[in-house]
Structure formats: structure tokens, C-alpha cells
Amino acid sequence: MTSTAPVKVRIRGLRKRFSVKGRPIEALDGIDVDVEAGAFLCIVGPSGCGKTTLLRILAGLEEKTAGTIEVARDAAGKDARERPVNAMVFQEQSIFPWMTVRDNVAFGLKARGFSRRDRYAIVEPFIRRANLGGFEDALPHQLSGGMKQRVSITRAFANDPEMLLMDEPFAALDEQTKLILQAELLRIWEESRKTVLYVTHSIDEAIVLADRILVMTARPGRVKDVVDVASVFGRPRRVEAVKESAQYGELFGRVWGALREEVMGAQAAEAVS
Ligand SMILES: Nc1ncnc2c1ncn2[C@@H]1O[C@H](COP(=O)(O)OP(=O)(O)O)[C@@H](O)[C@H]1O
Ligand SMILES: [Mg+2]
What we know:
This protein is an alpha/beta fold. The chain contains 9 helices and 9 strands. The protein has 2 domains: 1-85 and 165-273, P-loop containing nucleotide triphosphate hydrolases (Rossmann fold, 3-Layer(aba) Sandwich), CATH 3.40.50.300; 88-161, no CATH class. The longest helix is centred in the C-terminal third of the chain and has 27 residues, at 246-272. The termini are far apart. The structure holds adenosine-5'-diphosphate (ADP) and magnesium ion.
């Protein structure tokens, strides 16, 4: 995103050290990043570099060791807090098996105190837009993996969070289903323009979805590169058009170039340890 938008999240010097059986594990080693309001930031990096940890810290599920996080409350980027009032992290299989599709989508609203009537009224258009119409009373076991993820995404948007934190939501899906859900996610996001931090191990997915791609180093995680996608591919964006274009290959090469060094380095370190 060519940044005229105010910064929604400002992260400076963020560090996280875990302790495992008395031994320190440096997970994050000084992350600096700004995420503009309404931007879609994808995060890629070698396995174990701290991507999930970063999202969990932002969501308040994990304490940071050092550094600062400022989340702006209003559109002008003012009145910052440590963490968003209401963020949503979701991963594979985060829906409740005993609840219907409607109740799963409405779950966040229930937690926020909306009456059943209001909840159902609010989620109805979201369910329709996500092509889940007709499945409101179905239980998760009656749905395909792709539809379950669709329920999960629909819940996230219906809850109207301040920002969305997504951790490899499509990682377990087959290629065709993934293509369809990526297109749907783009469409829903383009309507809402929520600020999104989206972790993926797929470079391809990052290019299709992101305004910017943050490439992390192998553990301890630092920022290796930030790749601007928004100035190459505008909005609204069509998945097919992105993949067919010549610039897609260039972007892929740049992200993979940065990532490959880190993945190879991590594997070499593993081999000698
Ligand atoms: N609760 C924890 N206790 C100890 N170590 C952890 C914990 N959570 C994550 N780690 C370690 O921190 C590093 C980063 O983990 P994670 O954020 O899950 O990486 P990623 O999501 O990038 O694969 C890994 O080495 C992992 O083993
Ligand atoms: Mg992870």
C-alpha cells in the first residue's frame, strides 16, 4: 500500500524469549513493522521463525519479552493501545463441532452480549455472501473442509473485529478449494477493508492476497524483507489475473529469493545441531 493511510499497528523492537526446561529459546528478535489501516499484510517465513508467536502476542494470548506495540484506536491513527480490542485468530478446525453453522458464525457476537435475535439478524447477510445459504442449520461434520473454513472466515468478519489475525487458515485444504476460498476472502475483505495480518507458508497465496509481504528470517525471527505487492496489483483483485501476469513471476522470485536463504540456513543449522 502506498502509504497515505494512517498506521493501525506499529511494532517496534518486538522480542519474545521462551524458556524450555530452563533453556532460553529466542523466538522473535526485534521485529519492526508498521501496518496501515485497512491493509492486508501477509507474513511468510521458515517454519519455527515465530509467525504464530507474533500473532498470539498481538491477540494478547502471549506476553512479549521486550519492545512496543501500538494499536491505533481511531481512523486518524490516534489514541494507541497495546493490543486490539477485538481481534480474531483462526486456524484450521476452529469451529465448534456441536454448533450449527449459524451458531458458529454468531459465536463471537454471543460472547459480546448480543441477543439471539440480533445475532441471527446480523449473521444472515454474512452467511449469504459466503455462499453458505441453505446450510444454516447444518453441523460441521456435514460440511466439507472448505465449507468449514468458510464458516470460520464468515464468523471472523461477522464479529466485526478491529483487525483480523489469520494463521495459515487454508493450509490444510486442497488446491482447488483453496483457489475458491482465496477469491472469496478477497471479495469479503474488499468490502470490509479490515486490517489483516495473515500468516501463510504459501508464497503464491501471499502474492494473491497481500498489499505487502513481510518475509521473516529463520529463528530467531527478524524482518528479512518487505515486498510491496499493492503497487503491482491493485484492488479489486482477481486471483486468475494475478497468476497470469508477468509481474507475478517477478514477485515470486523476489519473495522466494529472500525466503530460500533462510530456509536453507535453518536446515543447515538443524543438520549440525
Ligand atoms: N509456548 C511455547 N513454549 C516454548 N517454546 C515455544 C512456545 N511456542 C513457540 N515456541 C517456540 O518458538 C519458536 C517459534 O514458534 P512459532 O511461533 O510457532 O513458529 P511458526 O509459527 O513460525 O512456525 C519455535 O522454536 C517454537 O518451538
Ligand atoms: Mg505457526
